[in-house]
Specification:
This protein has 346 residues and is an alpha/beta fold. 26% of the residues lie in helices and 21% in strands. The protein is globular, with a radius of gyration of 22 Å. Bound molecules: guanosine-5'-triphosphate (GTP), magnesium ion and zinc ion. It holds the Pfam family RsgA_GTPase.
Length: 346
């Protein structure tokens, strides 16, 4: 507690556990939960680095506490990492949305049905995690709905084998029967994790199964078919399974943020052994002769599913790369335009 007569309120440290846009919930190091706002300076800094949210759950901050017991965030500690995606918005306006900061493992959650597994989503998520060296895994939820459906069971076994083969842990779970919940709980212990995925796959339900006391809101049966329904509206960092885990709002499309097209192949883990063997160093692995990646696809060493994902992703990465380059040219001037100021090279 700060003495009201004290002219310089004491600085405290804490963890951002909930972000609602302008207000943040911060768990201080002495275990108190405070509502806090940030100083304007951060907003401006954040705009310059093109993030939609200057602070994310998982951020460690310094704050002072005012007379009304709300906090003023004065500083953000350097991040170890951050999981980001392209902020939803107009085409051309490419901005970063930070989902969570300082995270040890990122779980992409998909469901067997309602909605079905979206492999494009999974691969974009895995690429985003790879770009920041964040270990990632896959939760295939609503396993109870597979019961007796042989084709669907085979499909799940296929995805599980594919992603486990790449080194990503895959857990088949059910918030209804409890299948896989113990394995998931064990994976949360002693770490900061995040669950992210489309709306309705059961992210909040799964966390409720791990930690029944959480009482997170989930959509009611019957509501789940309503399109565009998002039950979780703000990212929240929760204590579950002996660790911290961020529950996040459903994402319709996991867009990639700021990736150079020539880097993309390196974020497909199974492409890595071949990248040095392509004839052209700037090979995009699509149409070039002497491409070792395409040869590996032909030799069944890279699956057509993952290669197809790569080709589809490359197109959108090229498109958004062009858009952000043009945005930079608009604000900083185009380097080769004599009428515009030339960017200084260090
Ligand atoms: N059959 C079955 N239904 C499930 C399971 N997990 C969740 N559900 C149902 O799926 C619906 C969506 O669950 P939520 O936990 O709200 O999904 P969410 O991923 O948190 O969705 P958002 O918060 O909108 O992103 C609810 O009706 C749940 O009861 C499961 O394992 N099996
Ligand atoms: Mg939810
Ligand atoms: Zn190649």
């Amino acid at each position: 507690m700060t003495d009201a007569a004290d002219p310089s309120p004491e600085t405290r440290h804490g963890l951002v556990i909930r972000s609602t846009g302008s207000w943040y919930d911060v768990r201080t190091d002495d275990g108190e939960d405070l509502r806090a706002r940030i100083r304007g300076r951060f907003r401006l800094d954040a705009l310059e680095i093109d993030e939609t949210n200057p602070l994310a759950v998982g951020d460690r901050v310094k704050l002072t506490v005012g007379d009304d017991e709300t906090g003023f965030i004065t500083d953000i500690e350097p991040r170890e990492n951050q999981l980001s995606r392209r902020a939803p918005g107009k085409r051309g306006a490419v901005r970063e949305h930070v989902i969570v900061a300082n995270v040890d493992r990122a779980w992409c959650v998909q469901s067997t049905f309602g909605p079905k597994v979206n492999p494009g989503f999974v691969d974009r998520f895995l690429v985003a995690a790879e770009t920041r060296h964040i270990p990632a895994g896959l939760l295939l939820n609503k396993a109870d709905l597979l019961d007796g459906n042989e084709r669907a069971e085979e499909a799940m076994a296929f995805w599980q084998e594919l992603y486990e083969g790449l080194g990503y842990p895959v857990i088949l779970t059910s918030a209804v029967t409890g299948r896989g919940v113990e394995t998931f709980r064990a994976a949360l212990a002693g770490a900061v994790s995040v669950v992210a995925g489309p709306s309705g796959v059961g992210k909040s339900s799964l966390l409720n199964s791990v930690e029944p006391g959480l009482g997170l809101r989930t959509s009611e049966i019957g509501e789940k078919t309503q399109k565009g329904r998002h039950t979780t509206t703000f990212a929240t960092l929760l204590e579950a399974g002996g660790g911290w885990v961020a529950d996040t709002p459903g994402i319709r499309e996991f867009g990639l943020w700021d990736l150079a097209p020539e880097e993309l192949g390196g974020y497909f883990v199974e492409f890595r052994p071949y990248l040095d063997d392509c004839r052209f160093p700037n090979c995009t692995h699509v149409h070039e002769p002497g491409c070792a990646v395409q040869a590996a696809v032909d030799a069944d060493e890279i699956t057509p599913e993952r290669y197809g994902s790569y080709v589809a992703m490359l197109e959108t990465v090229e498109e958004s790369h062009r858009a952000s380059q043009q945005a930079r040219w608009r604000t900083q001037g185009r380097p080769d335009d004599p009428d515009e100021p030339v960017e200084e090279i260090e």
